[in-house]
Amino acid sequence: xxxxxxxxxxxxxxxxxxxxxxxxxxxxxxxxxxxxxxxxxxxxxxxxxxxxxxxxxxxxxxxxxxxxxxxxxxxxxxxxxxxxxxxxxxxxxxxxxxxxxxxxxxxxxx
Length: 110
What we know:
With 110 residues, the chain is mainly beta. The protein has no helices and 8 strands.
């Protein structure tokens, strides 16, 4: 507890924060197998049975694609998302770091 302009204020932490988001990021290949990704994130976050945040944030990442052959590849992306969480569940902008590993198959006729 601490004193604020409107009287005593209490600080609490969310025991868990559930996040659902959609990234609309674009990729730019620096060299053939290394890329960066950047774009907006639309998200909803909840914690302790309440909605903690809803809105637009940002996403950025660095990635590498490992080509197995002309149709198959693995992608490794170190990614970070920024979301804003309302008071009582966090403290403003919250960065979320992740490592994404994906397998991709190309259906095009090569």
